[in-house]
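Task 17 of the worksheet. Students: predict the tertiary structure of the chain below and write it out as structure tokens. Keep your answer in the requested format; marks are given for formatting as well as content.
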Amino acid sequence: MAGVESDGGRFASWSEPLFRRLLIGGVFTFLAMQGSTIARGWLAFELTGTNTALGGVLIGFGLSSLIAIPTGGVIADRFPKRRVLIAASTVQTLVSLSLAIAISTGVIAYWMLIVASVVQGAMISLLGPARLAMLAEAVPPERMTNAILLSQSSLQFTRVFGPATAGVLIGVSAVGVDGVYYLAAASAALGLAASWGLPEGQPRLTHRRTPVEDLLDGFRYVRSNRRLAHLLLLSFAVVLIGFPHVAFLPTLAEDIFNAGSSGFGLLNTAAAIGALVVTLGLAGIAANRLWRIQAVSAVAFGLLLVVFAVAPIFPVALLVMLFVGAAAAAFQGLNNSLALKLAPVEYHGRVQSLLMLSFSGFGLAALPLGIVADAVGLRETLSAMGVAVFVISLVSMAVARRRDRNPVEVLEL
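Model answer:
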């Protein structure tokens, strides 16, 4: 079939041994992230009871990511990726274990969550570019989109049962928040163990420049590639404005819908189910449809955020969150795939790190949005976020259409 991204069907990349090991190790790593994220958000709300505090936890993540993400991209392009994954996974394991012990011994404080958020944000900034850059080496070019979307599906698979399970376990007195953190530490340790069996993943840079020169070279390359620059700018805007909605799910679950920690976990799970279905569905998509679906998913994400904001009862909110998760995952997964297609392999780490910068912006935006939500209302704030994403996505789509009318600028994928 013309334009099909990969042969071998929707699970074509599974036949690659290195891809399988990366995927399995990633499942444990993602489970650890899901568990610690749910525990951190709920504990922050339990300790303070405000949206501002929930945003404060994320701003620590955002600030550290803002610094660490560009560095992580340079490191992924300059150093063996296996060593980067092992180092970052080790720190992730220790952070979750330390918080579990602090809770068990009764010394936990809000500032510790901020510190943990800063450290974990930095480690994710190392893990993300290194994993994606190695993923591009694990499969042939014609299977790249398939591999990225299957990897994204594994992340969503962990979100299907991870957040809901964590939310339920937090409410079980025999487990609680500390037990969830212990489980997150154990899962991170399993992900670390899987990384030991990976090949070194040697860097592709053959010249000797300073890390700062490599970083600046990455910025210059993105600036020279108009399609890639457009992709990164849209990603930053949509994630910065729309993705902070996840920071306020504890408040929605507890104060608006009276669903407690279990409801918080179920909202996350609903989003994950939608994301899992859509990423598996897109895994066999034709290459010539990637850009169109990416643009439509951004527009749909904005509209769905507005619908979610005005959901009258919890079951309706759960149903809408299913579609919110689907649209967000489609947008994110296709961004990663298109970015790797547009960039030469020696720039993969740095390009992916620039894509991840949007998530540091999302962390930074969560605090002011939390302040606004406390002042004017959470539903009103979420509605405004959705409208902004919708408008920006429509403008981006119009700009892309005008650009692609010029045959000189059209880049066939």
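Marker's comment: Residues 165 and 265 are 7 Å apart (CA to CA). The mean pLDDT is 79.
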